[in-house]
Amino acid sequence: MTDQELQTLVEKVSQESFRQPFCHNARFNQRLKTTGGRYHLQSHDLDFNRLVFEKYGTAELIKVIKHELCHYHLHLAGRGYQHKDLEFKQLLKKTGGSRFAPLLAPVVFQVYQCQQCQKMVKRRRKIDTKKYVCGGCQGKLKFLKTIEA
Ligand SMILES: [Zn+2]
Ligand SMILES: [Zn+2]
C-alpha cells in the first residue's frame, strides 16, 4: 500500500464513518515502532505504522485509522479528544475504532522436542524439562530453539 492509497483510504473512512472530510495528510511513518498510528496536534496530519497493514491486513488498519480519526475530528471540533475523555471513548465505540494500537512486538515461543517420539512442543514460557515430560509418551523433553511468530 502506498502513501497515496493510504491517503485515499483515510479520506474514505472519514467520510463513511464520521460523515466529515479528512482534509490533511496521512502517511506511513517508519519511525513508529510500537504504536499503530499517531495524530499530530499541530499539523493535524496522521502517521501510520506500515506493519499494521503488513501483519494484520486492511481490516485492522481501518480500525487504527478510525482511532486516529477520533482524535482528529474531536480535536478540530474543540471536543474531548484524549484517551481519557468520555467523548473520545464514545466516538471510538460508535465508529468501531481500535481501543489500543495492536501489539506489534513478535510473539516468542520456546520449542522443545521429545527425545523419544520426536514430537515438537511449543510453549510461550520456558518449562523445566526435569519436571515436564512429553504429553504423548512421557518421554524426556529437550530444548530446541526460540522462535518468533
Ligand atoms: Zn490514540
Ligand atoms: Zn513423546
From TrEMBL:
Source species taxonomy: Bacteria, Bacillati, Bacillota, Bacilli, Lactobacillales
* Protein name as it appears in the record: SprT family protein
| Naturally occurring in which organism (per UniProt) | Enterococcus xiangfangensis
In this chain the SprT-like domain maps to 4-144
| Pfam families referenced in this protein's UniProt entry, alphabetically | SprT-like, Zn_ribbon_SprT
